Amino acid sequence: MSTYWSPVVHSLTPYVPGEQPRMANLVKLNTNENPYGPGPAVLAAIAAANNDDLRLYPDPTALQLRQTIADYHGVAADEVFVGNGSDEVLAHAFGALLRHERPLAFPDISYSFYPVYCGLYGIASRPVALAADFSIRIDDYLDPAIGAAIFPNPNAPTGMALSLAEIQRLVAARIPVLVDEAYVDFGAESAIALVKKYPNLLVSHSLSKGRGLAGLRVGYAIGQAPLIEALTRVKDSFNSYPLDRLALAGAVASFGDEAWFRQTRAKVVATRETLIRGLEGMGFEVLPSAANFVFARHTSGHAAEINANLREKGIIVRHFARPERISNFLRITVGTDEQTAALINALRAARL
Ligand SMILES: *Cc1c(COP(=O)(O)O)cnc(C)c1O
């Protein structure tokens, strides 16, 4: 603390990212990174961009990347916003789109960056409890006291997805709706299909999970042009160049290698099913996952002990001590088949 801090800094409760330990031979299943990483086309594009042009600023409008993403999703370039990770895209959306009179609703068990952005921008928040089965109940969001809504689809850390028809019921209420599709590549239906019809819908995507590029920091949002213009106005009041030349080159190349994307995604989805069967075989209850992680609790309880036991064996998963309702769950990223086997063997040896 310091007397030089502004009042808002005093009031912040910053987000705490999952740890990135520097240990050799770690089985790292704690932050939902993709075990396969970028394909050779992406690495070649980044290498080719690593040249004397780095003395020049990148394109502040990132037009080539926005056009590439627009073509990929069948929208127009002025319906695409890009940023330094989808976290930055979401932050700008909070600043650009959310009014401050009525609260922003989001699930009480969800991505913990949402309340952090509310704190940063002075936006009132309204956590909405998940149903008993941990699903999002859209009816709870159709309350006129709510000014806007955000949720991940699939939700994190549950991994559970909502259908497009359910999402449409909320979007039809005409409040701003942000659908955070960080994990959509692994199974859920994308709400991008609704963008043409609804001027109040913004859908965010990340290259960190499905495209194995967490280290490159690229995310984007799709919405009708006036919403994108709002985000661009905020971005151009903050940082003209959030994406550097290497990130732009790598991201464009990622959309050019559909085969790599599909193959690695299929492997993750297949391993997810192996992981779920392995966990269920040992007495875990696993929530239905449409993501590249599973959320599971053992019938004996003791998630904290299981977490500590795995850690001693060099296997890192994520345990949330709070809220109470999820304190007996572990969130486990889907890794390679070898990593999954190491996890299952370690759990078996622990004789739960
Ligand atoms: C990982 C994640 C993000 C952020 O992704 P980046 O593009 O890496 O910033 C956003 N939302 C959810 C729900 C996530 O899990």
What does the average pLDDT come to? 96
Q: How many strands, what sense, and barrel or not for the largest sheet?
A: 7 strands, mixed
Helix-strand pattern, N to C?
A: HEHHEHEHEEHEEEHHHEEHEEH
Strand content: 5-15%
Q: Count the DSSP helices.
A: 11
Corresponding CATH superfamily of the largest domain: Type I PLP-dependent aspartate aminotransferase-like (Major domain)
- Domain count, please report it: 2
Helix content: 25-40%
Ligands bound to this protein structure: pyridoxal-5'-phosphate
In spatial order, strands of the major sheet run 2-8-7-6-5-3-4
Write down the CATH class of the largest domain: Alpha Beta
Which CATH architecture of the largest domain is right? 3-Layer(aba) Sandwich
* Main structural class: alpha/beta
Would you identify the regions where 5 or more consecutive residues have pLDDT less than 50?
none
